Amino acid sequence: MMRRPTRRLALSLLGLLWLAALLLFFFGARRKLEAAAGAEERTPEGLDVDWDDLWDQFEERRYLSARRWKGGEDPYRLHAFNQRESERIPE
Q1: From CA 18, how far away is CA 6, in angstroms rounded?
Q2: What are phi and psi of 89, to 5 degrees?
Q3: Contacts of 76 (CB under 8 A, 6+ apart)
Q4: Residue closest to 37 by CA, chosen among 26, 49, 47, 29
Q5: Which residues 6+ apart lie within 8 Å of 10 measured at CB?
Q6: What is the pLDDT along the chain (91 residues), one digit of tens a residue?
């Protein structure tokens, strides 16, 4: 009969320990996110990028013509291994 309270006590302590670990995990992650958000606000102005200038420098035609497929060429040949392996995996 002494075994019952010992088991209950052990399970209760284990449950409390589990809850404490979860709370520590969630609040610790929250603090890290708040610290990271604070660090983003303090970025030096030299790192601020003018995205409009970068977008103006982007050459769309050059990007699109970098790899053109020729007639009779298989565009999926490059990734054929991935396709074969994914087809082998049962759903």
Answers
A1: 18
A2: -75, 125
A3: 83
A4: 29
A5: none
A6: 555 678 889 999 999 999 999 988 888 877 777 776 665 555 555 556 777 788 888 888 888 877 777 788 887 887 889 889 999 998 7
The secondary structure of residue 85, as a DSSP letter, is H
Measured between alpha carbons, how far is 79 from 31 in angstroms, rounded to an integer? Answer: 42
Contact 37, 31 (CB under 8 A): no
Q: How far is CA 3 from the centre of its chain?
A: 46
Tokens 């790899």 label which residue?
A: 67
Angle at CA of residue 70, ends 57 and 85, nearest 5°: 95
**Which residues 6+ apart lie within 8 Å of 83 measured at CB?**
76
Contact 21, 27 (CB under 8 A): no
